[in-house]
Design brief:
The complex is a heterodimer of chains A (about 575) and B (about 220). By secondary structure, chain A is an all-alpha fold. Chain A is built from 14 helices and no strands. In chain B, helix 2 packs parallel to helix 8, helix 4 packs antiparallel against helix 5 and helix 4 runs antiparallel to helix 8.
Chain lengths: ~575, ~220
């Protein structure tokens, strides 16, 4: 392990600017280039997953119409859609993408603490993506076990992809975890150890807090997924019986004995629930910064926001079995996990109130990032409230495995984080590329996405109440469902295809911006945090030119009374401008 | 502005102390990162051990008696856990030589550091070899990951998986120690001025692997 510190030397800067195209853009150790590599790869696989969801919707909206969607394909689409969206898109984009880009810039560091390991992290992530995509093309195709991969069915004959698909899926997850660990160790150590002078923890922008806490959750939660992946690979490959009970398959005895399928569910959800917050906490943090910047007002209750992030992170490790109320575990567990689940609503609600109070009497600029941030508040409240239904055992039992659950988790960890992703891309786009995007096109993108997703997911709640089960290829002639359920499904499909198609606006906008977009000012939103104060836009290798910045105030000095500008950057000394509310303490 | 700030006491004071300075922990970056990695690795081994406990409870077949399965015949006596006792002794001794190597590193005694690290790696390699011997013995007796003649199939599955995963950690540690030892010998750390912290960082990993073994020993062999 080479141990060469490059980022913290104020006066003898020993980093070497990369010269060739390959060291600059491909084998790059610059956190900004790695961030863009991560982001581009994640968005690419995300588009594949979006295509898969369109295929699923076609089948659900118009059953018996498309001969190329077989039941086996449908299960493969479901599985890969879920896994890609949760792990290979959202986790990679928030932590590998935004984490890599924002952490060093926001805390005033030249790079991550170990740039070489950071580079390896991306390439290993790319390897995991390649393994994942390869599983579509092996004999038997990708696994169709559902994204939760529950045994015994995940490796039993009859489930699609039990030949090679499940093996590649598990291998890809293990490789992803290695990649995440290499990146995650970098992010955590950079936040803890490599901040610039004066950047106390309680002066960091909430984006950094959210990404930091999410990374800590990842480092502690992914081990459970790694262990369950290894054990299932052994069950599949050499016929151990960790998860497999004595079972008969197609009239034959596959030779398993005495394993515990519930053990897999415990391990999976010990990872799976923190994973929800690995996706949500960066979104919480980023949306706080977007709201504050575009409302020209300090975030309401900064200290409480930080403590809420920490509390949510801690609590997320003791709620996992609320995914398992119907698994057959001891009913007393349900009592415990329902209680902890409802407790987690307290810090979460606190954050929502604080976002709304940040907007209160703010000088709101409805620019594109702000629209997405406000849209997030709507969808998140919506998804959060349905979470209260599902957190209670007695209400969850009838709703379990219906479209109500599908609507809930898509609102809370699908639509909400994606709105923040778009808001964040629009917000930091001028810094990343040095170009402005097309404002009107961006607004169209927001409104069509926001209203379109409501048209998709709001009716799904009713389908769930009516008892439509999730993961079914076709309902056939089901007596308890009215015919209108099918009409609703067709309407949802049309909305879904519409929303998927409107994402083209986003890519048109980005291409337009890169080719014809006007040059961006270094700080177009007049924001206070350090990434907007770099000497160059986009920032050059090493970020800060010759001298590291020094931080004198928190990240939210907006509209401080008695000062001409309505924002005071973090690197403006107290002798030059008044200090607003600063909880960070002196250095 | 610091002169005007009132210092809070109590919990707020503790929080401020940690949050204030440039670095939360007054240690090199590499050491902080190793601590965080070991925390993550702790969760991996905890998941393995908890899973082992759960399959041991859930399986329907009787669990083999470890002191019989892991017994050896020495000088005509059946000694339970003989090999494991020696293996554990070897590994804990290697922690001792590692601690001495760290000390010698900070004293800039390159030669002693090098030889103590090589000794540590040799003890680690001895441990892995004895583990290979134990695996061979059990495989000869018919123990397989999917079945064994003594009882529950999960006994063999958990045994090979957990000791195998730990053995991989030890093997990786031996390679890591040898690389660092070689760099100590050829003066690499003198040239880049890193003050031999890397010896201590390697030592952290090594002590962690030993500590994990103590838990595996307690939960797998003694229970």
């Amino acid at each position: 392990m080479g141990y060469v510190a490059i980022a913290d030397r104020d006066h003898d800067i020993e980093h070497h600017d990369p010269q060739t195209f390959i060291t600059k853009y491909i084998w790059s150790q610059d956190h900004k280039v790695i961030a863009i590599q991560y982001g581009a790869t994640a968005i690419f696989v995300g588009l594949i997953a979006l295509g898969l969801s369109a295929m699923m919707r076609l089948q659900l909206g118009f059953p018996d119409t498309f001969s190329f969607i077989t039941p086996e394909n449908y299960y493969q689409f479901i599985t890969m859609h879920g896994m890609i969206m949760v792990i290979y898109l959202l986790t990679a984009l928030f932590l590998g993408g935004f984490g890599n880009y924002l952490i060093p810039l926001m805390v005033g560091s030249r790079d991550m603490v170990f740039p070489y390991m950071n580079m390896l992290s991306y390439w290993v992530y790319l390897l995991s993506v390649i393994i994942l995509i390869a599983s579509f093309f092996v004999p038997g195709g990708a696994t169709g076990a559902g994204w939760t991969l529950y045994p015994p069915q995940a490796i039993m004959q009859g489930t699609p992809g039990t030949e090679w698909g499940i093996v590649l899926m598990l291998a890809s997850l293990a490789v992803f975890i290695v990649a995440f660990t290499m990146g995650g160790l970098n992010y955590v150590t950079t936040v803890l150890q490599a901040r610039c002078r004066g950047m106390t923890l309680m002066r960091m922008p909430l984006s950094v807090w959210g990404i930091f806490m999410a990374t800590v959750l990842g480092l502690l939660a992914f081990p459970a997924l790694l262990v369950s992946a290894i054990m299932m690979l052994l069950d599949k490959g050499i016929h151990t019986s960790f998860f497999m009970p004595a079972i008969s398959s197609m009239g034959a005895d596959p030779g398993y004995t005495g394993g515990s399928p519930i053990l897999f569910q415990h391990l999976f959800w010990f990872f799976g629930h923190p994973e929800v917050y690995i996706v949500a906490l960066p979104a919480f943090g980023i949306v706080s910064d977007l709201l504050s910047t575009h409302a020209r007002k300090n975030i309401f209750g900064y200290r409480m926001m930080v403590w809420a992030i920490i509390a949510i992170g801690g609590l997320s490790f003791v709620v996992w079995a609320h995914h398992m109320y119907v698994s057959g575990m001891n009913p007393y567990f349900g009592f415990f996990f329902a209680t902890t689940t409802l407790i987690i609503a307290v810090p979460t609600a606190l954050k929502v109130y604080n976002w709304v109070l940040t907007l209160w009497e703010g000088n709101i600029h409805l620019r594109v990032p702000m629209l997405f941030a406000i849209g997030f508040i709507f969808t998140f409240i919506h998804g959060g409230l349905t979470g209260l239904f599902l957190g209670n055992v007695t209400i969850d039992l009838p709703l379990s495995d219906t479209y109500f659950v599908v609507a809930h988790f898509h609102m809370v960890m699908g639509v909400s984080p994606i709105l923040v992703v778009f808001g964040a891309i629009y917000h930091w786009w001028p810094k990343i590329t040095g170009k402005m995007y097309h404002e009107t096109l961006g607004r169209w993108h927001f409104w069509m996405t926001f209203l379109g997703t409501y048209a998709i997911y709001l009716p799904m709640h009713y389908l769930g109440f009516a008892g439509v089960p999730r993961r079914y290829f076709a309902m056939g002639n089901t007596d308890f469902l009215p015919d209108s359920a099918q009409d609703l499904n067709a309407a949802i499909t049309i909305s879904a295809l519409f929303v998927a198609a409107t994402q083209i606006l986003f890519f048109i906008n980005m291409i337009w911006s890169l080719t014809k977009g006007p040059k961006a000012d270094g700080n177009p939103w007049q924001a206070t945090s350090l990434e907007w104060q770099t000497p160059d836009t986009p920032p050059k290798h090493g970020n800060w030119g010759h001298d590291l910045p020094e931080c004198y105030r928190w990240a939210y000095d907006y509209s401080v009374p008695g000062y001409a500008d309505d924002f005071i950057p973090q690197n403006v000394p107290a002798s030059v401008a008044p200090v607003g509310r600063d909880h960070g303490g002196a250095h | 502005m610091s002169e005007a700030v009132m210092e809070p006491g109590g919990t707020a004071g503790v929080v401020n102390d940690f949050a204030r300075d440039k670095q939360v922990f007054g240690v090199p970056w590499g050491k902080a990162m190793m601590w965080i990695f070991l925390l993550s690795d702790t969760f991996i081994f905890s998941c393995f051990l908890v899973s082992y406990m759960m399959v041991r409870i859930s399986t329907t077949d009787p669990w083999p008696n470890p002191s019989e399965v892991f017994g050896l015949t020495a000088f005509g006596y059946d000694v339970p856990l003989l090999l494991i006792a020696i293996m554990t002794f070897v590994l804990i001794t290697s922690s001792g030589t590692m601690a001495l190597a760290v000390n010698m590193g900070y004293r800039k005694n390159r030669k002693a550091t090098f030889w103590l690290m090589v000794a540590t790696a040799a003890l680690g390699a001895t441990f892995v070899s004895m583990q290979a011997f134990e695996w061979t013995k059990l495989i000869m007796e018919g123990v397989r990951p999917w079945q064994n003649p003594f009882g529950a199939a999960q006994f063999g599955s958990s045994f090979f998986m957990i000791t195998g995963f730990h053995g991989m950690h030890v093997t990786a540690g031996v390679i890591y120690l040898l690389i660092v030892a070689n760099r100590v010998r050829n003066g690499f750390y003198e040239r880049c001025g890193s003050n031999y912290e890397i010896v201590e960082i390697a030592g952290l990993y090594w002590h962690f692997v030993d500590l994990v073994w103590v838990f595996i020993f307690a939960f797998f062999y003694l229970w």
